[in-house]
Each structure stands twice: as C-alpha cells, then as structure tokens.
Amino acid sequence: MLHPKHVSLVIVALLLVAVLFYTSRNGRQRPVEPPPATNAAPAAAPANPVPPSSPAAAGGSAQDRGAALLQEGNRLLHDGKADQAVERYREAGRLLPEDEDVHYNLGIALARLGRIEEAIQAYEAALGLFPEYAEVHNNLGNLLLRGGKADEAIGHFQAAIKAVPDYASAYNNLGNAQLLSGHVEEAAVSFAKAVGLNTNYWEARFNLGNIHTRQGRTNDAAAEYREVLRLNPGFKPAEDALAGRPLQLPGPPQR
Fold first, then answer.
1. 10 Å Cβ neighbour count for 103?
2. How far apart are CA 140 and CA 113, in angstroms?
3. SS3 per-residue string spanning 103-169
C-alpha cells in the first residue's frame, strides 16, 4: 500500500466532493477521501470497470468476482452513486470478508450517505484486519471528531501519523482535535508540522494563523493569512482576519 500524500477532511475548510484513487497493497484501486489541498482534482474512473452482472464478474474465483465488485463500487462512488456503491461493497465483502480495502471503501460510501454509525463500524472492521491502515485511522478520526468525540479522534490521528510519519493531513486533523479538546499549544505544534510537511497546505496555514490570533501573535497570524490568500485567493475568512474583522474561533468543548 502506497503512503498517501493527503487524506481527510478539514473542519475549517469546505469539503471537496472528488474521490481519488490510489493503488492498495493488494494491487487494486481504492477510493481515498479527498485531500483539502487546492490542487486536488477528480481522478478518472478505474480503467475498464467490470459490471457485476457481466460474465467476468459472474465467473471466475471468489477473489476475482470480489475484485470486480470492488472496482465497480469504486466507479459508482466516483460517479456520486454512493448508495449503489454500498451494495457493491457489501457484495464484495461477502466474497472477500478478510479484505480490509472492502471495509474501508464501504466506510467511505456510508459516510457519504450520512450513515455515520455504519461507517464507523466499517472502518473498525478494516482496522481489525489491518491495524496500521493510516487512511482508515484518519477517516475514522474525522467521523469521531465530527461527532464531538475529540479525545477518541486524537488517538486515531496519532495512530495514522505513527503509520505514516509524513502524513500532513493527519497532523492538521490532529491539531483540530487538540484545539477542540482545549490543548491549544499542542494544536499549534500539529498545525505547524502539517505546514512544514506541505508548505502549500493552505487549510493548515489558516488553522495555524487562527492559533496565532488566539495567542496574540498578530504578526505571525497575519503572515499565515497572507500566505493562505497567495495559495487560495479570495478565501474570505483569511481576508476578514487581515481586515481586523473578528474570527469565530472554536473553543474547548463543554464537559
């Protein structure tokens, strides 16, 4: 399995809707939640997807049929048909119950449909088969964070970073979770690490600028906001921050 460059959602940024495809350690293609980077673009669907009703899917070994269903699920998810993708992934899972990629892809499709608890279960199943699956830890952490479970999310982001030390998106997400848990200094370190790993990561720079604002480091904050606007011209929250308009910064959750 190739290490990801960026995988995840960012709390402060608009979510992208593209699905990227990376080759798994099993030699197949799997969808990965889109990165927040501004240069992300939709990837083409897998070459020559095999519909599950075709002879290629109906015949052959269980592994071949499962792989065909997985590929078809990927194509459907790429086309925005998450409900149909779920059906294909579940069919593939019956043929390939020990395949972590099937559970991972199922989790993505379920999350797209807002079926969060089912998505969490699918991600947990993937981790049961492959505990060092960094993308799964990152995506699961994001779902937990969106559900207000920042402390649990932190553990998964840390696990993702342990598996892939240069995982910039996981550092950014870790920073979001730490900030929501009230660990401002730790969040600053995580956002700075994300920026150090990817200097064009404008979402992480915006988060770092917000931390500097919270800390009263106005010059440092302004430098980050200006860099955000260089990378993503017209990003209104950064323009507002530079203009001195108040930012709505997240605080620690109520306990």
1. 26
2. 15
3. HHHHHHHHHHCCCHHHHHHHHHHHHHHCCCCHHHHHHHHHHHHHCCCHHHHHHHHHHHHHHCCCCHH
What is residue 1's three-state secondary structure?
Answer: coil
Q: Both tokens of residue 130? A: 């492959």
**DSSP label of 171:** H
Give dist(CA 103, CA 109) in Å, integer.
Answer: 10
The tokens describing 32, both together, are 């990965």
Tokens 């043929």 locate to: 95
* Residue 43 pLDDT > 50: no
Q: Is the dihedral of CA 178, 180, 181, 185 positive or negative?
A: positive
pLDDT per residue over 201-222, tens digit each? 999 999 999 999 999 999 999 9
What is the model's pLDDT at position 47?
A: 34
Give the Cα separation of 136 and 107 in Å (integer). Answer: 9
The residue with tokens 């049961």 is: 128
